[in-house]
What does this fold into?
Amino acid sequence: MNEYVIINKTALEKELKRLAQISPLERFCYDGMIECEERILKKVLSQSTPLIPEIEKAINSGIRSFESNAYEMPELIKEIQQDYISNLKLDI
It folds into this structure.
């Protein structure tokens, strides 16, 4: 079973920017640790998937299931989907 976590892309990008601004002398003192942290953060970002498209896929999957078992209501379903995504707030 796969487990997923939510990460704050903006926070990771800010940290990468901060790391990029560290002076060469300070980089030398930390003996590769800064470069290692940069590589790890970049790898996490490169393997990440935006949350909203994944939510849309899940909603659409539910819609297809609903439509196969009930009357088609595409306009209402689309409105519900848009309302859900626009009101989505993650307290993280």
